[in-house]
Amino acid sequence: MTHRSPFDVVFLSYDEPLADALYARLSDTFGRVKRLHGVHGMRRAYQLTAEMVDSEFLFIADADFEIAADFNPEEVCALDEEVAMRVWRTVNAVNGLVYGHGGLKLCRRQALRDLRDDVVDVLAGLPGRIEFTPTVAGRTRFNQSAFHAWRAGFRECAMLARGCEYGTTSADALARLDTWTSTGAGPYAADAIAGARAGTAFATDTPPDDSPWQNLNDPAWLAQRYAASR
Length: 230
Fold this sequence. Notes:
By secondary structure, the protein is of the alpha/beta class. 35% of the residues lie in helices and 20% in strands. Strands 1, 2, 3, 4, 5, 6, 7 and 8 form an 8-stranded mixed sheet that branches.
């Protein structure tokens, strides 16, 4: 069912096999959805979304996000003054975890323009408070190929093991790490688990302030790391 979104919507894709199908599904819900494709560098891609829209706030969906059939954007209110981003939860398509990983986001346009570069998890660099809503907006279908499943597991678990920049408690992070590295079902589940274990090992071997952490936002580096693991 198509709704009238009060805010512009941008779909971010890079190399995901299901990007076209998930873009079409998102468009069925929101109506008109703009798309940014193939931009190298996650920080630059997120910053560019701010230049594609006219509204003060914008929805951002990554190309592994499958929106729930009953999500209604007309019910979404604007962000409070001190809030830079609101994140909806997703259901992990491999291990069933439910939290903000891969979730739908509502961002303040100016905050994206002012994104800091001193963080690893790019959107943790937004100036202002980040708000997490308990509502589940869909699934994160990162397991679109062996490489995409591995890459998602590597990035997420490296950041969880380093220490979440969103303020997640260490107990929650450890519980999520345990699930990522031990549990999975469905397509490419073994690759997601392998990536999660490799990302955890990377975090163990890399001091938290070392420059290699920025490689987590470099698709070419991640592809080389994946190839070396085969």
